Amino acid sequence: MKRLTVCLLAGAVLAGMLSVLPAHADDGALVSEDGLYRAIDYGDGNVSVMLEDKTVEEAEIPEEIGGHRITSIEVDGFKDAEHLRRVTLPPTLTMIDDYAFMNCTSLEEIVLPETVTNLGWESFCNCASLREVTIPAAVEEIEEFVFEGCASLEAIHVDGKNQHYKDLDGVLFNIEGTTLIRYPSAKEDAVYTLPAGCVRIEDFAFIGNTHMQQIEGMMQIKELGEDAFYGCTALTTIELPDGITELTRSTFGTCEALRTVRLPADLTSIGFGAFYGCYALESIELPESVTTIGDAAFYNCPHLSRVAIGPQVTSIGKMAFGFYGDGENNERLPGFEIDARQGTAAFDYCAENSIACTGGITQGIVFVYIVLGVVAFVVIATIVIIIVRRRVAKRYEL
After folding, report:
1. pLDDT tens profile 6-56
2. DSSP secondary structure string, 93-153?
3. Which residue, 17, 166, 167, 226, is the most exposed by fewest CB within 10 angstroms?
């Protein structure tokens, strides 16, 4: 009995001691006094924070939780907080990790502390209400897709003291100005002129902009990233310089208004879905340098009724031309035809996909030949029958 009493007293004392310690979860995560935030101390100087209640409209993150200084926003830390409109970040913060504020669709305002050095992968992806953001001077690295899906983003500003990035009229560039990194989705200029010295357009640089109809200064560009103009639904014309040899994945995918395209004379490869969903495109002239055309390169281009493909093209991907649909239910475009010679990859593509070929013998032409052959046979047979009958008739007359 005494032993049991001692054990109970010891348990009570231990419980009392634990009650004065900071609240924490089983995984060692500390919880703020108001219960809104959870922090994780990784033991290497990095203490990350995450939002516990994803229904709040405003968040003011404390500098410390349980005596631990907050240095980063945890991966997925505020992800899917759809009602969150404003966030106040602590001045101790140095990193906003991957997907930190992803899908915070109501987020309108966020001020990044001067201490932040890194913006993680897709950290503000799909923050559809965010209108502008300022990159602090200390930022050294901006990962990919940070502002993808920010449909209301009008400008990206960069502190003038930043040594790695800069902005020109709200457009994000590397510090040298040679690479255009991100053009805001909601920037309303109908015509955008690339600044002198810009020679590369980064992957996904213009993705989702719905205002730009024309871009000038493209003749100075030497490298064009994948998905560079994907979803630029207002873009009507594009002229590409001869120095570009490859159009990578979905470069102009779903540019629905694109009507006029001038391809580089040195182009060798047109990648997967490069002009997928260009509904207004009516014609395309392929340079003689092109040798490879990827899958779905011109898929869902319903107004493209004819294309000439030279014998130098050795590879044509699945549904590259003459098909439309949703990717699962695919149909051939009525009346679509390819001008190609017999014995070429383009001729084989026509034969495999039952597409009319105007430059060689295709199934349609073979059918015509068969019909002509049948007619000729019938005529010859008729003549022979007539001759035979006449000879037989003469015999009976004798």
Report:
1. 343 344 433 443 333 333 334 456 999 999 999 999 999 999 999 999 999
2. --EE-TTTTTT-TT--EEE--TT--EE-TTTTTT-TT--EEEE-TT--EE-TTTTTT-TT-
3. 17
- What is the distance between the alpha carbons of residues 91 and 138, in angstroms, rounded to a whole number? 12
Q: Which residues pair with 329 in a beta bridge?
A: none
For β-strands 200-201 and 165-168, DSSP reports them as unpaired
Is the per-residue pLDDT at 82 higher than 80?
A: yes
Q: What is the pLDDT of residues 285-312, one digit of tens each?
A: 999 999 999 999 999 999 999 999 999 9
Say which residues have a Cβ less than 8 Å from residue 97's Cβ, sequence separation at least 6.
Answer: 48, 72, 73, 74, 75, 77, 120, 123
- Which CATH class, in words, describes the domain spanning 188-360? alpha beta
Fold exhibited by the domain 26-174: 3.80.10
Measured in degrees and rounded to the nearest 5, phi and psi for residue 364 equal -65, -45
Domain ranges of the chain: 26-174, 188-360, 362-398
Distance CA 224, CA 358 (A): 33
Do the first three CATH levels of 26-174 and 188-360 match, i.e. the same topology? yes
Cβ atoms < 10 Å from Cβ of 365: 14
Contact 61, 12 (CB under 8 A): no
Give the separation between CA 255 and CA 312, rounded to whole angstroms: 28
Q: pLDDT category, 379, cuts 50, 70, 90?
A: confident
- For 178-202, the pLDDT digits (tens) are 999 999 999 999 999 999 999 999 9
CA-nearest of 53, 95, 51, 87 to 71 is: 95
DSSP assignments along 346-398, one per residue:
HHHHHHHHT-EESSS--HHHHHHHHHHHHHHHHHHHHHHHHHHHHHHHHHHH-
Outline where the chain has alpha helix (H): 2-19, 345-353, 363-397
